[in-house]
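Researcher: Here's a chain I'd like modeled. Treat it as a single chain, no partners, no ligands.
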Amino acid sequence: MPKVAEPATPPLTLTLDEAGLERLAAALGRVLKPGCCIALWGDLGAGKTTFARALIRALLADPAHEVPSPTFALRQDYASARGAIVHFDLYRVTDPSELEELGFDEAMASAITLVEWPDRAGTLLPPGCITIALATATSADARTVTLSGLPAALEWP
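Model: Modeled as a single isolated chain. Structure tokens:
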């Protein structure tokens, strides 16, 4: 997996509404390249798919692009000008060995990957994976977002 040239920033915690999640996704999308992995952590309803949709739309430069949840398909693929994007939802995976059939290793090596429920991957997540943990905040439309392993090139307003 290609490594980001700059060192990672220290963990960052933000409280964001949906528009803030979209701005964060757009900022992150500017520095991602094939071989980058985003691990999305959080309980059901925490905003993982919302963030993934915003990031995929930002990478595609198409805010109206249909981005279905891969909960039942387990994997959704997209082609962008910057390379392949693969969105995994591992909620229904019961053993990491199931990921071989999904082309998990190949996607990690050659695509920008987003992984919901990354704990189901066991030890298969690559080193250097960016971690985004989402949780509901004090209001129903706000999320607490903790980011780890971000490239230093990320500019957050």
